[in-house]
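Comment thread on ticket #2218

A.B. wrote:
> Attaching the input chain for the structure job we discussed in standup.
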Amino acid sequence: MIKQPGQYSKLMSNHFLKVGLVLSALLAGMAIASCAQPESNGPGTDGSAAYFNGTTYILSEHELQVILPVNGSRVNLTLFGEAENMTLLDDVGNNISFNSSYQFRRGDHIYRLAFEEPVRGTLVYSLSRQGQQFVLPIRHVGPVRIILPPGYSTGIRSLGIARPEPDIFQDADSGSILTWNNTTQIPYIEVNYYRKSAPLALMIVMAILAATGLVLMVQYYIHIKKLRAQQMEMEKEEI
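C.D. wrote:
> Ran it. Output below, let me know if you need it in another format.
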């Protein structure tokens, strides 16, 4: 059966309307799916500073604070930046004096610290940084914990994720906590993070795009319907 021009236009307009509805639904579904927050999979989501037998990196907007457990009479560090405010504390929080030497070689900042007697405690220092990406070369194998700035999170692929995936993720009020228990086979850790309000903003943008696409398709359908009516009127006049 041969379709008349009016019938063909009607079929095409219905087809484009259906496609528009499907695309709008897909965009809305993608917005909802992409904004699903990662679930915490570890205890202590209140952000309490429990003892951690590994190196902790606390991120802020322009600074990185490092907390390194110490048990001995010396520490050797190879860092990607120049350390500031280096402090040695014993297990009860007393400040311990130490001797240190510094060397810059092939892009690395090398520190050698020596203590008068064996110390069990923590070494705390700061490094300058900026941006919402943190890349940590693993030069000393051991557990690693990264605490994001307050109000930030990670885990949504379209906004930012951690590579490799952490063993434990804790969504704490003081800052999301990511923990890797074994870094033996990890050359580096990369964390891209975002404000916790970003998923909602993304969902709103995707919803606006979906609504805009739907409106355009409806307008196209109305325009085709008017053209079809004009064509049918012209065909009647010719008859």
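A.B. wrote:
> Thanks. Noting for the ticket: Confidence is low (pLDDT under 50) at residues 1-6, 8-13, 31-35, 44-49.
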